[in-house]
Amino acid sequence: MARAAATARPPDTPPPLPNRSKGRGIELALLVGAVLICVCGYVVVGLARWHALPGGAVRYGAGLGGLALLAHLVVRLRAPYADPLLLPTAVLLNGLGLVLIFRLDQETPADHAAPTQLMWSTVGVALFITVVLLLPDHRVLQRYAYECAALALLLMVAPILFPAVNGAKIWIRAAGFSLQPGEFAKVLITVFFAAYLAANRGALARVGHRVAGLALPAGRVLAPIVTIWLVSVAVLVLERDLGTSLLFFGIFVVLLYVATGRTGWIAVGLLLAGIGAAAVGTLEPHVHVRVEDWQHPFAGIAAGEGPGQLAQSLFAFAAGGLLGTGLGQGHSALIGFAMKSDFILATFGEELGLAGLSALFLLYALLVGRGYCAALGLSDPFGSLLAVGLAALPAIQVFVIAGGVMGLIPLTGMAMPFLAQGGSSVVTNWIIIALLLRISDRARAPRPEESGAEPGAPTGTDGGTAPAGRSRVTGFLKPTRAPQRTPTSPARRASSPEAGR
């Protein structure tokens, strides 16, 4: 029968390709492992603090497991080809953050933040499900690029009307409810940057001016995106939110480099970032204090005033050593009021050691890497740029936060993705995961030639598949160039049918 089936197929027809694995079973197994790791961490904290199982371990495991299972079912239904590593990585990071905040709650009996953080995590997963269900295709966002930019600027301006918190005007507080609009604005700005650069990638390839050896596009092409970026950074500087302004600048430079393929933008970006940081660090008192703390972290000890927060953070990392002191057995209370937010990484390093920190950074690297893989699997420029921008957001945040807490760069007020206390941050990160899942579903879906379509059938202009003979990876992140005409000889022009018309 096999021989008969082989003879029934025309000789020029290629054999059918095997079905591409969707990876949903792998995702479910990894989710179970992620939930179990987080529950074990919760139990270890209880054993270390009270030598007994914590009373809420079952409720915590059931709540986190229920959220993970619900998100998995929605992905299985609406994005069957999505990357199977994104959701488990996000659940594990979110669960570890809940464990650390629960552990730090034991140092502040009057201020328990873990229940509130779990509530915000539930809201984040609900928005994750909403995005996966209601956004059929990431390319829909490209139509609303300028609306996203306008909404982002509005969100960034809103905190100016409210009083400053810890020296920065980045919060909206009303009736006991607080919100950090800049967290949502960073996603909207990324959508605008990706849409604008994708629409103008051909014009970006043409040289308008040369400044100090750098070939710049025409001013009319760069003017809109530079204007939006300058306005957003200026607003953030006025609000003393230097961390988010640095994040916006980093996203701008990364996407501009990816869209143009010119390494000179990286050098220009680093130069401008250095000049801006030096100017703000000198002129802004709030930032200047942080620069002084970074340059002299042990000045308080020398003056007899005791160690400051940065010094306590460095002591925590040193006390952790290679394997850490163990969950619940550190001295995080010495760090002070920001131990659940800005300095939560110090607790992680002290109680889980260098091994735990390495595993944590590898999780973030995995999240970023899978986002880049989704970008490389797409053929539409907007989707590729959007995936790169969304993946670069946690990468830049982790670098800025970890560098500040470890004393490598001045400290900035930002939240460690999924790990630190902060409702706006965890909700925004779940939206980023949802968008990356939607993009990866498009990137990993079978192409027409894999689903039985004719090899020469048109693929359309929707960017879902690549034309025959062209790579799905190369050629779409770089701007297109106009084809060059080859000269023809006089004899050939004379013999042309159109000669003499």
Task: Please summarize what this structure is.
The chain is mainly alpha-helical. It contains 18 helices and four strands.
Fold blueprint:
Blueprint: H1 2-8, H2 24-50, H3 57-78, H4 86-105, H5 114-134, H6 145-157, E1 172-174, E2 177-179, H7 181-199, H8 201-205, E3 209-211, E4 214-216, H9 219-238, H10 242-260, H11 264-283, H12 285-295, H13 299-302, H14 309-320, H15 344-376, H16 381-405, H17 423-444, H18 490-495
Antiparallel strand pairs: 1-2, 3-4
Textual characterization of the structure:
- This protein is mostly helical.
- The chain is 61% helix and 2% strand.
- It is built from 18 helices and four strands.
- It has helices spanning 2-8, 24-50, 57-78, 86-105, 114-134, 145-157, 181-199, 201-205, 219-238, 242-260, 264-283, 285-295, 299-302, 309-320, 344-376, 381-405, 423-444, 490-495, and strands at 172-174, 177-179, 209-211, 214-216.
- A two-stranded antiparallel ribbon has the order 1-2. A two-stranded antiparallel ribbon has the order 3-4.
- A hairpin with a 2-residue loop joins strand 1 and strand 2.
- Helix 11 (264-283) crosses helix 12 (285-295), helix 15 packs antiparallel against helix 16 (381-405) and helix 16 packs antiparallel against helix 17 (423-444).
- The longest helix has 33 residues, at 344-376.
- It is globular.
- It starts with a helix and ends in a 6-residue tail after the last helix.
- Mean pLDDT is 80; it is low at 1-9, 13-18, 451-476 and 478-501.
